[in-house]
Amino acid sequence: MKTIVITGASSGIGKASAKFFAAKGWNVAATMRHPESERELSELPNVKCYELDVTDSATITSAYDTILGDFGKVDALFNNAGYCLFGPLELSDEEQIRNAYDTLIIGLTLVTKKFIPHMRKNRDGVIISTSSVGGLLTLPLTSTYHEAKYAVEGLMEGLSYELYPFNVYCKLVEPGGIQTDFWNRSLVMADGIDESDYGKQAAGYLNQMAQPVSDSRASADDVAAVVYEAVTDGEKKWRYTVACDDFIAFRRSMNDEEWIAHIGQMYSGFGV
Ligand SMILES: NC(=O)c1ccc[n+]([C@@H]2O[C@H](COP(=O)([O-])OP(=O)(O)OC[C@H]3O[C@@H](n4cnc5c(N)ncnc54)[C@H](OP(=O)(O)O)[C@@H]3O)[C@@H](O)[C@H]2O)c1
């Protein structure tokens, strides 16, 4: 039986992936910040929950040791934990920025680093990380999120050169808008946006992301199915998009300056 480790498995894409892999007969090490609160996954026979806060190296090490003790071999790692810091950079305080990068970049990097020797020695493994359509194009007021997801893209591409010789595949899943807690519980807001010069732009953006659009979003289950395909297809393909191909094509239909002008105008952000 194969084993996958998933970070951020308490909700959304991580939880859906845990259930999907378990249903396909995999062992799942579902890691999360608060496993004591998890009810659904802990009921599944081939799923075990572990404490792992990607910003806390001690929990990375203890989860790694316990998972290896429980399952012996890890075949796949799904780096999925993440959230978005929303707001203009100048209103995002240092702690907010450091926390976002600790989670999205440093934490993901350290978890990956932890599992590499095991997979390298086995000459077998898949490391897949959740990037985003926001790792390929940018939208307003989420510059630190884009910065982080662009970094994840660079890490996974760069790592491919190191790990392909050892039969360890690095891959990316790039979701568009997905119905999860991402746009509510997991959205961290910079302070004082409404009263600032960015208020109009922010309202336009948040309206755009709100209810009517969310009805047409793909589900976390859709992403989980693609993650499963990526982990099991045995191919060196490394980029798997979900629900964003039209958006990417639209981005590629214009040059950088046209894109920035188009998006700026769309969110009424320029000239306020
Ligand atoms: N939803 C979208 O539209 C969308 C689009 C593109 C990419 N993504 C990416 O998809 C990934 C999953 O997000 P989601 O949409 O499934 O949203 P979600 O339901 O809010 O899930 C986010 C998960 O990340 C976990 N997390 C946050 N900080 C963590 C930390 N320090 N250590 C461990 N876990 C942590 C959360 O755990 P807690 O329960 O402890 O908070 C939660 O399990 C993220 O990387 C996000 O950037 C989402």
UniProtKB/TrEMBL annotation:
Q: Which UniProt keywords apply?
A: Oxidoreductase
Recall the GO molecular function terms of this protein's record: oxidoreductase activity
Query: Which Pfam family would be a valid example here?
Result: adh_short
Superkingdom of origin organism: Bacteria
Q: Does the keyword Disulfide bond apply?
A: no
Q: Which SUPFAM superfamilies match?
A: NAD(P)-binding Rossmann-fold domains
Q: Which family does it belong to?
A: Belongs to the short-chain dehydrogenases/reductases (SDR) family.
What is the protein name given in its UniProt record? SDR family oxidoreductase
In which organism is this protein found? Lederbergia citri
